[in-house]
Amino acid sequence: MNRKNRFLSGKKIDPKPISSSTTLVELVENNFVSYNGGRLREACQLFVEKMLNEDTTVALSITGALTPAGLGISSLIPLIENGFVDWIVSTGANLYHDTHFGIGLSMHRGSPNISDVTLREEGVVRIYDIFFDYEVLLSTDAFFRQIISSEEFQRDMSTAEFHYLAGKYIAERERLLGQGTKSLLSAAHHLGVPIYTSSPGDSSIGMNVAAKRLEGNKLNFDVSLDVNETASIVLDAKRKGGKSAVMILGGGSPKNFLLQTEPQIQEVLGISEKGHDYFLQITDARADTGGLSGATPAEAVSWGKVDPDKLPDAVVCYVDSTIALPIITAYALAKHPARKPKRLYERRQEMLNALKAEYEQAQQ
After folding, report:
1. 305 is a catalytic site residue
2. Considering 255, 305, 310, 342, which one is annotated as catalytic?
3. Tens digits of residue pLDDT in 68-89
4. What domains appear along the chain, each with residue ranges and CATH number?
């Protein structure tokens, strides 16, 4: 019994009883012991102890209806404002619903058990247990159609530039309303955090852009520029002697778009690289169905998306993002000082030029 076994070197399971004075940090570190509670503890610790190092560039992907549930205001904006997220890939839907809050429109708690026929008759739209007036959609549509009619939108641009410009208008509406920062797009504009959308036509924002094209509007999303800009951000992090970290909320197209930066660098452009250094995913998708949302970091190694030497720094937590994200945010704010914003949006051309130079050299 005195022989030490290397598999029994983990901390003894003997948690402190939870009390009225238990803090969130104590709860995570002492009481999130095993199963997905244990993985959530590991996710919090990976994020704070490694991903938030000054030399690490942190990317975030967002899927699922998180902003309508208020998670943009409660969790994502604080992460940006404290320099904990450097660039983002999001569904267009999350950014569209995020805009409701920025322009002074309201969302309400509801019930998933109300008849949707009744809600339709009452002019109420439902996202599970979130209710809002149908006029919220019409007002937000009108807002986007108005801003993209302005002269600065009459050209080709990356989705990052589109979101940066939209954030400027949302920030001004917030100022006029005197309500403070309620929009992720507004916060990203202020702090130079580029936000990309992997499928710009797949949301109400894209639908309104398409409608304006029928009227002769010249706005066009340059998706090739999105691919190259995101790859250049990752390459820049590595070439400056730093690391690249990915935090994935859900899965879907934004997850793939974020992770494909490494195959773009290695496979397509022929530039020598190894993969992302830190991988943190919150998901409810299974790996055995073959979908990208459930694909593990180990599988991502085979594509060159994740550095195989860094698999110990990969955590997948099978839990609802609406539970995990606020906990990770609160834990990080309690444990780590704010980082200086990298303001990557302002360095896009510089990073793109460096990517192009390495690509040209690789072709020789």
Report:
1. yes
2. 305
3. 999 999 999 999 999 999 999 9
4. 11-362 (3.40.910.10)
